[in-house]
Amino acid sequence: MVVGVISPFPPGGDTYPQVAYFAEWLGKQVSVQWITISERGFRVDRLLDQTLFACAGRTFLRRSAKIAKDYRAIKTLSRNCDVLIAIDFMALVLADAASSKPVVFWSLDFISSDEARYLRKVNQKWLSVVRRALLRRSSIVIQDPDRLRAFAASLKLASDDLKPFYLPVSLPPALPEFDEAFPRQWVGKPRVMQIGGLSAWRSRTDFLLEQYRACPDQFDLYLHGSVDSDVAEQLARLNPQPQVSETMVACDRIPEIVRRCSIGYLGYSPSDEQFVLLKNASGQLVEFLRCGKPIVSVGANNLALFIEETGVGFAVKNPQEFSAAIKAIHAQYPNFSQRARVLFEKQYNFDNYSAQLLRYIKSVVNNPRQSQLGQQAC
């Protein structure tokens, strides 16, 4: 079997480690042809605002030329493939238009129906194109049933219109040389870490910095990721300075970064539906759990109840709860760390899904409209 993957990310890219690990795994199972396209396609409104209105359409025309080039590349790719895997909206639409081969759509993000931009005419037209493609190509890889329902509703589809394989954000276990270094007990001062994009509007880094500014003696702070300008201004005013790393590392080296903290911080800020339904869609969560790191979470999402029910950390709303959470975790650190590792192995270890995922892809090749595999619970 030959699988063609159409992705806005290169196979070894670091933006979505799950995609990079999937590329590595898939290449060991079947023959893979991978092409990287120019656009993800779920920010059409921003594309138009930045191009038609900002520079008289010149950039828009260049982007359109790239999309046309991607279409031709997909058409050529599909001739030698048994099935296409399309990652995100633009890949799906182009694959549907360019090829008659079976297509599996892999959803990472989507425009939920409660977002302000959802009602913009350009997005409604774009989503109608996506909807038609999905009605023809109903196989979908998505994180869990809750996100499937929200995704389907945003496209005015019923969940039953789609044939899902449920795949939480999943990674392989940490490499043994890293795993051996993860302590079951943390010795010394607590160290809180945030990874990923560091901003005030999206990741609530501002809340974390305020706790560090008020109580630098309570914990050390380590930030790893790209720093937005709003956070950079706050960082400059801190004394003592936290440790900050903006260096991108290979996906398999991320545990080397995460091992340096005792607690992982999750601060998802947006409240639209796809950012509420995060317990199976947060790569940051999975990176911490597989390293045995307990979690402190801020934000209105379904991570809050989940991490407390599973005993891997606390959801907090204010400075008092944040301080209490750090103390409570470190008072029983081995227990929290062990539960984090157990949760990873149970729910986020890619090895738990790989065999069924391969069967699902093969079933789409054999019967593209009737595949019923991949209904395992997340």
Number of strands: 12
Can you give the mean pLDDT?
88
Number of helices: 16
Helix content: 40-55%
Distance between the termini: 28 Å
Query: Helix- and strand-based class?
Result: alpha/beta
Number of domains: 2
User: Any idea what the shape is?
Assistant: globular
What's the name of the CATH homologous superfamily of the largest domain?
Glycogen Phosphorylase B
Oligomeric status = single chain
- Tell me the CATH topology of the largest domain: Rossmann fold
Work out the strand percent: 5-15%
Question: Biggest sheet, open or closed, and with what strands and sense?
Answer: 6 strands, parallel
**Can you tell me the CATH architecture of the largest domain?**
3-Layer(aba) Sandwich
CATH domain class name of the largest domain: Alpha Beta
What topology, given as strand order, has the largest sheet? 2-1-3-4-5-6
- N-to-C SSE string, H for helix and E for strand: EHEHHEHEHEHEHEHEHEHEHHEHEHHH
Detail the poorly predicted runs. Answer: 370-378
Our Rg estimate from Cα atoms comes to 21 Å
How would you characterize the overall build of this protein?
It is a single chain. By secondary structure, this protein is of the alpha/beta class. The protein contains 16 helices and twelve strands. It folds into two domains: 180 residues, 3-Layer(aba) Sandwich (Rossmann fold), CATH 3.40.50.2000; 173 residues, Glycogen Phosphorylase B (Rossmann fold, 3-Layer(aba) Sandwich), CATH 3.40.50. 44% of the residues lie in helices and 14% in strands. Strand 3, helix 4 and strand 4 form a beta-alpha-beta unit. It starts with a strand and ends in a 12-residue tail after the last helix.
